[in-house]
Amino acid sequence: MNNFIFQNPTKLIFGQDTISQLSKEIPQDKKILIVFGGGSAKSNGVYAQVAEALKDHNTVEFWGVEPNPKVETLREAVALGKLESVDFILSVGGGSVLDGTKLIAASIPYAGDAWELVLDSSKIGEIVPFASIMTLPATGSEMNSGAVISNLETNEKYAFYSTFPQFSILDPKTTYSLPAFQVACGVADTFVHTIEQYLIETDCSPLMDRWAEGIMLTLKEVAPKIKADQTDYAQMSNYMLCATMALNGFTAMGVAQDWATHMIGHEVTAFTGVTHGQTLAIILPATMTVLREQKGDKIIQYGERVWNIVEGSRDEKIDATIEATKRFFGSLGLATSFSELKIERSTIDELVERLASRGVAFGDKANVSADIVKEILYMC
Ligand code: NZQ
Ligand code: ZN
Hints:
single chain, alpha/beta, Rossmann fold, Dehydroquinate synthase-like, alpha domain, binds 5,6-dihydroxy-NADP, binds zinc ion
């Protein structure tokens, strides 16, 4: 097991009708900037619950943080926050609104431009305290310090790290209104977060392996049930907790992490706009195929414990496990190849060229170069 430091300060408030607890979680004397997405919070009743809970607080609202939040939009929120001298920020929505909030919180006290903080987290100083009401289980952003921000002008999408939400409220009932496609993408994202901290070595931490396998087995069990009925409270709760646990550091203690599939996925989203979870569902099986020798032993462990693949030669087991993974993503209703999404080879070539110019080396072994990315993306 590798050395590690674990600290996660986010208070998690989970369960039905918990949004009303907002009023006592945020001190009365705070001036709160409430950040929203494009309108789902209004149509599903979450906005009304927030407004009721904060009716005696001093609030100002910012609407319009889009999926794959753009720095161009976030700059407007930063300006509003500065103008209003806010000293608390509340994100209401999915991972994009919360990721955007993380950048807003770090940029309000910062004298320079927000994008500088995305490119270099070491420039982050003071951060306005923030919290979230998470309405889309997927990113784990509700209990981690990461955020992924896009830049329209330069066509870039990068992760940066700041700090954790003070608290996050997760009411599974708020997810009933999610489009089925977003649920499918969220399940895929959660699954891939888990596997990117798992599919590395076989003998590093049996405990972390079983945490990760527990999440993947739960997703496998829950996915068809929530696809059939998105208002099944028990199953949506299971899914929501999986999403949080997959990326809050709990499965990462002492183990190596990969993230090549995510890094490639972010590039594909920057170039094509395809939703994050959908990119991962296509890329992961291709990454596993291209790195099958390096990852073979762990693929076999994963195949046996998650998909019950116990028969056949080493190669047959690896093939069957990759196929089972692909079938799982397909069963969610997601595309399993770029051709289904009409992504052209010329787009991939352009993307790979930019990665080559950056000299990227993704993955736990830092061996996923632009050439390997090309091989993976051609396979997609
Ligand atoms: O904008 P609104 O109107 O709110 O609608 C959103 C959006 O259109 C809608 N939605 C959210 N909750 C809803 C709802 N619709 C109905 N009912 C609800 N309860 O869903 C759409 C997608 O929302 P978005 O926030 O973009 O999705 P998600 O939570 O999957 O976030 C994706 C972003 O997170 C980044 C991704 O790269 C992407 O930019 N990630 C962040 C991570 C992190 N912070 O740790 C890690 C992840 O790997 C990921 O990269
Ligand atoms: Zn992700």
